[in-house]
Every structure is written in C-alpha cells, then in structure tokens.
Amino acid sequence: MRIVRLTQEHVFKPFDCGESDFKDFLLQDARQYTKGLLAVTYVIEDENSTVAFFSLSNDRVSLLESDKATWRRIRSSFPHRKHRSDYPAVKIGRLGVNVGAQHQHIGTDILDFVKQTFITNNRTGCCFVTVDALRSAVSFYESNGFKPLRKINEGETVPMYYNLTQLI
After folding, report:
1. What CATH homologous superfamily does 2-167 map to?
2. In the chain, where are the structural domains located?
3. pLDDT at 147 over 80
C-alpha cells in the first residue's frame, strides 16, 4: 500500500466505504477542495483499489465550540501564561475505508499517521486534531483517544478532539 497526496490528475481506483457522502466527496469534491485550498486529501491505494482516504484542513478548538468543563480540561494542559481563547487544530474532514478493508485497523493507522505527522512535522503550529464524527463512528474515535467537545446532543455528527500535547 502507498499513501499519495491527491492531485488534479489522480486516477481513482475503485472505492466504496459504505457511505455515499464520503464516496461522492472523494470522487467529485476532493479535487476542488484541494484546488480551492480548503483541504488536502490523501489516498491510500494498493494495486487494485483505493483502500482508504482522508482529508485534512485547518481548524481550531475554542470555548464557543465546547462546554465549560471540557474547556477547563483543555486549558489545564497549558501553562497559565499560555492560555488563549482558542487553540490551533487540524481537522479530519473525511476519513473513509473501503468496505473490503474495514476492521483491519486501517482507520486507526490513519489516525496514528496524522497524530505523528503533526507531532514530528508540524509546519504551522497545531496542538489538536478535530473531527465531526458520524454518530456511528463515535466509538471508533473514542477508542483512539478522541473526546467529545461538548455534551452529545441530537444531530448527525459529534464534534470531537484529540490533544496532541499528550504525545510529547
């Protein structure tokens, strides 16, 4: 398998993660997000198929998006003189794994790759990874150390975060 950064010329191999929105994003929107500087998408391929993909963009974690108890926990990981009203983050916009490759820890490997990339090659300053997780994926993200930013209310997605400072 290899990870490639999506280009305008990329030829997609077959992909189906079971979520039509994710497949549509990859095949129809990802190039435009890249061209418009909105997100960067990475594709993981083997010889025959697209095994998985994920897209990254800039984000932030702030009091406005979290509840007060969560914000206190977030701020407590920084010295008082470093307290801010928000902290820089990288957002996983989409993460999809081909149906035939699911339950093989590829999603966890992708999360570990993103975490390590922003610990060892952090070009802009980023201390959190965020995701708006589908409700069906919340337990997956929790098992990878992500926490909800606020109490989970109704809605399609759950805003979650991972604090990269715990890895250094």
Report:
1. Gcn5-related N-acetyltransferase (GNAT) (3.40.630.30)
2. 2-167
3. yes
